[in-house]
């Protein structure tokens, strides 16, 4: 018996496609730059998996999205960020990096939250600034991460630590 799909957010539409990782999330309405698309109050701590987002400096610091947000795919030119920077989890949210028209796919730059990904992949975003293999911020320069519009504080910290280590050698 197939369990019927029940949307978790009224402002999003999941576009179900056959194949692994082919489904994606569309905006159900217009969002302006800086708008909060969703609060991550249903996210729970979880072991690292493809459906989690890193929420701290340690690779074990992850949240399970537990919602339609799991269908927000990667892009090297993202239109949303997962802002988990507040010490107060009640303030964790998904925010628009730029204006998003109704019907547009929602995308975020995985290395903005992920230091070293459990499942690296060949990017298929097709943007002018596509980086190719996506493995996490550990494998990118500071500029390659920062120019995407937003970086989690722990990724900034880890990049700084890496730069300090290489300056000492």
From TrEMBL:
GO molecular function, one term: methyltransferase activity
Keyword S-adenosyl-L-methionine appears in the UniProt entry: yes
Pfam family, one: SET
Matches recorded under PROSITE patterns: POST_SET, SET
Keywords tagged on the record: Methyltransferase, S-adenosyl-L-methionine, Transferase
Superkingdom in the source lineage: Eukaryota
Domain SET: 1-111
GO BP terms, alphabetized: methylation
Residue stretches making up the Post-SET domain: 119-135
Keyword rRNA processing set for record: no
Protein's name in the database: Post-SET domain-containing protein
Organism (species): Mycena rosella
């Amino acid at each position: 018996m197939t369990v019927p799909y029940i949307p978790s957010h009224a402002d999003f539409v999941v576009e179900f496609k056959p194949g692994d990782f082919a489904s994606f999330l569309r905006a159900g309405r217009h969002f302006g730059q800086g708008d909060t698309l969703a609060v991550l109050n249903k996210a729970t701590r979880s072991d690292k998996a493809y459906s989690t987002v890193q929420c701290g400096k340690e690779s074990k610091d992850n949240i399970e999205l537990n919602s339609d947000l799991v269908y927000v795919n990667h892009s090297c030119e993202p239109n949303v960020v997962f802002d988990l920077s507040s010490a107060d989890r009640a303030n964790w949210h998904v925010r628009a990096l730029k204006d998003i028209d109704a019907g547009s796919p929602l995308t975020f730059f995985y290395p903005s939250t992920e230091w070293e990904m459990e499942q690296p992949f060949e990017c298929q975003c097709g943007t002018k600034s596509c980086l190719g293999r996506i493995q996490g911020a550990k494998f990118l320069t500071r500029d390659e991460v920062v120019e995407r519009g937003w970086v989690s504080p722990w990724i900034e910290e880890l990049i700084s630590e890496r730069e300090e280590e290489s300056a000492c050698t």
